[in-house]
Amino acid sequence: MLKIRLKRLGRKKQPIYRIIVIDSRKPRDSRAIEEIGFYNPITKTYEINLEKAKKRINQGAQTTKKVQQIIEKLKN
């Protein structure tokens, strides 16, 4: 099963996340199938390729709560 979730990068207490498509059985920071965006919680900036996200969701990928919130903000 595919998941669209966050992959943590950055230094200690300065996280930056990439929004990735990955197999749900893999660890959080393992190799992704596809990177479709990023999220910076410190500056509250985010970017996601909605076309790629919609394509993966139509193929059956599930999103996490945080990724779903980011997608909803970009749609508005």
TrEMBL record:
Coiled coil: none annotated. GO terms for biological process: translation. GO terms for cellular component: cytoplasm; small ribosomal subunit. Keywords: Plastid, Ribonucleoprotein, Ribosomal protein. GO terms for molecular function: structural constituent of ribosome. It holds the Pfam family Ribosomal_S16. The keyword RNA-binding does not apply. PANTHER family: 30S RIBOSOMAL PROTEIN S16 (PTHR12919), SMALL RIBOSOMAL SUBUNIT PROTEIN BS16M (PTHR12919:SF20). Belongs to the bacterial ribosomal protein bS16 family. HAMAP family: Ribosomal_bS16 (MF_00385). This is 30S ribosomal protein S16. It comes from Gracilaria edulis.
